[in-house]
Specification:
CATH superfamily of the largest domain in chain A: Dihydrodipicolinate Reductase, domain 2
Largest sheet of chain A: 7 strands, mixed
CATH architecture of the largest domain in chain A: 2-Layer Sandwich
Mean pLDDT of chain A: 95
Order of helices and strands of chain A: EHEEHEEHEHEHEHEEHEEEH
Oligomer: homotetramer
CATH class of the largest domain in chain A: Alpha Beta
Distance between the termini of chain A: 29 Å
Structural class of chain A: alpha/beta
Shape of chain A: globular
C-alpha cells in the first residue's frame, strides 16, 4: 500500500510546545513524523513513537516536507531560516519571525487564511495574541469600538506558556497557591504583535488605513498547566445586546471550525486539548459608558501553539485544514 | 494571677471563615475563646483548643464579651440580632447587615475607624470590597479619577471565598486546572456594597455629595485555597507617575499597619496568612487615555474576613487594634 | 456510503466516567454514540457531539448494540439488568455486578480475554483492582511469591476516582494541599474484588486450587484529577533481578498493547489519557527478606474505567480490540 | 527596658527552610533575629523583619548566640564548622553532620533530649527520618516487632522538601497532576540516617546491642507545597489492638507536646504549620501475619526542619523548649 503522507520533523521536541507537536503529529492522518530533535535527550526514545530524539545536526531536515521549529524565542530564527534553505516548509513557533523577518508569513487562518496558502516560511502566532485578535477582529471590522477609551485586556495563562526551562519562578513551590501579574503596563513582549494584528484587523476589514485601537494588556500567571483566559472590556460607541454580539461574531466566523461562539462564558476546561478559541459575551449593568465583556479561552499549547501550527501546515501543504486536530 | 481577658465566642465555627476565627482567637493575647458552635460537629473537639463544638442553643452567648457570627449570608442576620440582644458585641461576617440592618456599623477601619469605636453590632466588610475600597479611596479623595470612563476591576479569588458547602462546582475535580469568570457584568452580590463604599469614599473625603464613580467588576474563580488579587484599571484625568502614586497612597494610609504599599505588584503569596491589603502600582505605556494600574492582594480569610473581624472587635472593645493579628 | 458502525449509548453520562465514555465514543471509528442519558442535564447539549442529554426513560436502549452504564455503585445493577433485557450488550462500570450477579462476566482482557468474547453482560473491573491484578498475575502464575508475608499494596488515586457527587471531603478547599489514607486495613470496598482476582490468578495459572495470597491494601487520596499509582511490595521466595522481572512480566504480557513494561518506574504523567497499565520494577537493597518493588500506574478513567469498557465492548462485539483507544 | 533575649542568625535564608527559619525567629519571644544571609538576595529586605539580607562574609556570626545553617547538603558542613569556631551554638539543618561529623549531636528531642542540653553543634534530623523514628521507637522499645519481615515505610513528601533550586523536575508544569516514586529500594540518602536511628532506638530502649530492624523505604513526590505522610506497615510478633497501640505510644510520649497520638489517621492538613508529628493507627483485617498500620504526618518545613531546629536551640540555650513554636 502506497503511503502518500507528507513527512514532518520537529526541532526542539522536548519543550512543552515540542511535546505537543510530537503528540499531534503521532496521530496525524496525513503527516508522518520522521524526526524529533533534542540536544538534551538525544538517543532517548520519543514517547508515543518508534523514534529516538536526534541532535539537530543529525536531523534529516532536507528530507521532509515540513519542519516545526519549537525553540525558544531568540534561538529560533537562525535555525528556521537554515531549515527553510534546505527545502521544506518551515513553521516557526517562536516570536522571532512574527514581524515578517526572512519573508515569513504571519499565519492566523481565521483572519488571514489566504496568506497561508502556499507559504513556505510561517510565523505561528503567539498564544495571547491569537485569542485577542480572534476576539477583537469582528468588533474592529464593524466599527463599533469607541476609540476614546482603551480596550482593557486582562489575561491569565497556565505555566506551560512560559516554557520548560528550569527557572525558580516556575517551580511548583512558587507557583502553587499563587497568582500574580507580570509584564504589565503594555511591556509584555507580545504587545507589538497584538498592536500590529489589531492595526491590520482595522485596515483589512474596513478599507481605512489601519490604526490599532488603544489597549491595555495585563497578563497573569495561573497555577494551572495549560490554558489561557482573556477577559476583555470592549468600549463601544453604543450599547450592544449580547444576542446581537453573538450574531455579529457568529456571522464573522461563519464556517470556522476552530472558533466557538456562545452566550455562556468559557473557562479553561472548555478548551484544554482542543484547537479552538472559545468566545463568550456579557453586557454590563449600571455603567454609563457602553462596554461589552468578551471572554476568550484557548489552550496555549493547542490553538495557541502546536495545534495552530498543524492547522497552518495543513493549509500550506494543501491538506484538509483540520486534519489531525482535536476539536 | 488574674485574667483580665475578654471572652469571645464563634457561631458557625466549621466553615472556612469560622475555622480561621477559631485559629485567630486561640492565640489572641487579650481574647479568650470560650465557645465555638457547629450544628454538624457538635460534641467533637475543636482543633487547637480544649473546647468541643456546641450546638448554638447551648452556646453561652450572654456570657461573653464578643460573638463572631460566621454563618452563610441569608442565615446570619437573625442569629446576629438575637445574639446582640443577649448583650455582647456582635461581629457579623456575612453580607446580611452591610446596609446597616439592625443598626449595624459597616466597619472598615482604615477608612472609617471612628464608626467602629464603641460599636455594638458590626457588619464586617466583604472580601472583594475590602480590597477595592482600600485601593480606591485615596484616588477618590484626591479627585484624580476621570469620571467619563469606568474603573475596571478584574478580580480573582481562591475557593475558600465561596464557602465550605458541598457544591459540585467547587469540587477539586472541577476547580483544579480551571479558571473562569462568574457573576460578571456587575451582577455579583458584592456590587451594591462596592458601590456604597465608593460613594461614601467620594463623599467623606472631598465634601461633595457622594456619587460612586462608574465601575465594572468581574470576579474569577482561581484554583487556589485562599487569596484575592484585584487588578484595577483606574482612569485618570491626567497621567500620574508610579512614584507619585506610591507617595499619595502612602500619605493617605500613613500609620496604617494593615496596608502595605510599594511599587512592586503583590501576588497572593505576599499576603496569605497576613491581615493586610497589599497595594502595588504600574503605569501603562502607549495608551492615550491616562490610566493607572493598581493591584491589590489580600487573604480572603484574613483581612477579607476573620482577621478584619478581630481588628474590628479589638477597636470596639478598646483593645490594641492589632492584638492577635499576623502582619 | 453505508455506515456499518455499531450503535452505542451511555447511561449516566455526566459523571467523570460518563464524560470520558462520551469522549471516547465520539471519536471511536466503529461505534457511533447515539444517546447519552443524564437526569440532571436532560435537554442540554453533549459536548463534542450533536446530541442532547436524554432522560433514561427516553433513551432508545433497545435500539443500540451496546450500552455503557456509568451509574454509581448501588444504583447501577438494576438499570444494567433492565437494559440487558432490552437486547443490547451491556457494560456495567460500577462494582454492582463484579461478583457475577445476573450472569455478568468479569472482564479484564489481559488476564481472561476468552470470557469476554461473546459476552452479553460485562462487569468492568474497578480501577484499583485492574492495576493490582495486572501487576501480580505473572508473579502468582510463576510461583515466586513467598506466602508467609503479606503483599503490601500502597496505592494513591486522583479525585475523579471518587465520583462527581457533591461531597465536602472532595471540595477543592479540602483536597488541595492535602494527602491522606482512607478505607485502610483491607476495609476498602475493592478488597473482595482484589481477593477474588488474586485467587483466580493463582488458580488459573498454575492449576492448583486458587487461594489468594495474603495482602494489605491501603488507598490514599491524591490532590490530582486523574491517575492511580500503586506501589507494591512483593515478598519473594528468593531474590529476583530487575532484568529478570522485566523479562518474566514481558513474556507473560507478550503481544498485549495495553500493558507497558520497563525498568523505569512510571508516574501518573506517563499514563494519563492512555488505555494502559504501566509497570516498573526495582529491587531493594539491604533487606534480608527478598522483596521486589512493583510500581503500577494507570489512568483511573481510562484503563481503570471508560477505556477498558471500550476495550471490552470491542472484544464482545467482534471489533478490533484497540479501536478508538488512545495508547 | 532590658532585652534579655538571645541573638540569632540564619545562614542560607532564602531557601524554603531558610524562609521558614526567618518566619519562626521573627515571632520568637526569646530569640531576636539579627541577621539573615543570602548570596543571591544580598541587600534586599527580609520579609517580615527590618533586616536586609547580608552576604555570608558580612554576617556577624561571632556576635550571636545561635546560628541556623540552612544550606544545601554538601555545602553546609564547612560553613557550620567555621561558624561554630566563631563562638555561637550552631544548628545545621542539612544532612552533612548527621553522622556526628565535627562532634555534632544528632538532636531529636523526643527520643534523645539529654544529648541536646548544652550541645554546641547540632545536627538537625532529616524530615523523613523524624517521622519514621518517632513512629517506630515505641515499637522497638517494647520488643513487639517481628524481625523476620521488613517494616515497609511508604512515604510521600511535598515539593519544598526537595529545596528551592531551579530544577526541571520540580517545575509546576512537571509536578502538577503527577505522582511518582523516587530514590526507591533503600537508595534514598536518608536511609543511613533512618537505619542508625532505628538501631539506636532498639539499643537505647531495651539495653540490647542496637540492631536496626530490616525495613524498606519508598519516598514519593506529591503535588503539594509542604507536608509528609508516612504509611508504615509494622510486622508484629502478635496482633495488637488499635486501642492498645494508642495506649503504648501515648505512654511512651507522655508529656511530649510535639507528638499527637490518636486512633484517627492524620493527613497533611492536620499538621502543616505545626511543630508536631501526628500519629494514627489501624489494624488490618484478613491477613495472617499480624501487622499494625502506623500513619505519621508532619510538616517537612516545621517539625521536619525549621521548627525542630528552634526546638533544639531552645533546649541547648536553656530556654522554654516550646518557645516560638506553633503547635
Amino acid at each position: 500500500m502506497v503511503n502518500n503522507n507528507k513527512r514532518a520533523g520537529v526541532i526542539g521536541a522536548t519543550g512543552y510546545t515540542g511535546q505537543e507537536m510530537v503528540a499531534l503529529l503521532a496521530r496525524h492522518p496525513a503527516l508522518d513524523l520522521v524526526f524529533a530533535s533534542s540536544e538534551a535527550e538525544a538517543g532517548k526514545p520519543v514517547r508515543g513513537t518508534r523514534l529516538q530524539y536526534l541532535r539537530l545536526e543529525s536531523a534529516p531536515v532536507a528530507d521532509v516536507d515540513v519542519v516545526f521549529v519549537c525553540l525558544p524565542t531568540g534561538a529560533s530564527a537562525e535555525v528556521s531560516l537554515r531549515a527553510r534553505s534546505a527545502g521544506p516548509l518551515v513553521v516557526d513557533l517562536s516570536a522571532d519571525l512574527r514581524e515578517g523577518q526572512g519573508g515569513a508569513v504571519y499565519a492566523l487562518p481565521e483572519l488571514w487564511r489566504e496568506d497561508v496558502r502556499g507559504a513556505q516560511l510561517i510565523a505561528n502566532p503567539g498564544c495571547y495574541p491569537t485569542g485577542i485578535l480572534v476576539s477583537l477582529a469582528p468588533a474592529l471590522a464593524s466599527g463599533l469600538v469607541d476609540p476614546s477609551r482603551p480596550i482593557v485586556i486582562d489575561a491569565a495563562s497556565g505555566v506551560t506558556g512560559a516554557g520548560r526551562s528550569a527557572k525558580r519562578d516556575l517551580l511548583f513551590g512558587e507557583v502553587s497557591e499563587d497568582f500574580k501579574a507580570y509584564g504589565v503596563g503594555n511591556r509584555h513582549r507580545h504587545v507589538p504583535e497584538i498592536r500590529a494584528g489589531l492595526a491590520r484587523s482595522a485596515t483589512g476589514m474596513n478599507g481605512k488605513s489601519g490604526v490599532a485601537p488603544q489597549f491595555i494588556f495585563t497578563p497573569h500567571l495561573l497555577p494551572v498547566r495549560r490554558g489561557i483566559l482573556e477577559t476583555i472590556y470592549l468600549p463601544l460607541k453604543s450599547a450592544l445586546a449580547v444576542s446581537d454580539a453573538v450574531a455579529l461574531w457568529s456571522e464573522f466566523y461563519a464556517g470556522e471550525a476552530c472558533v466557538d461562539i456562545g452566550e455562556a462564558l468559557p473557562g479553561l476546561k472548555d478548551v484544554v486539548g482542543r484547537n479552538v478559541v472559545s468566545l463568550g459575551f456579557a453586557d454590563v449593568a449600571d455603567v454609563e459608558s457602553p462596554t461589552l465583556l468578551v471572554v476568550a479561552a484557548l489552550d496555549n499549547l493547542m490553538k495557541g501553539a502546536a495545534g495552530q501550527a498543524v492547522q497552518n501546515a495543513n493549509i500550506a501543504l494543501g491538506l484538509d485544514e483540520l486534519a489531525g486536530l482535536p476539536l
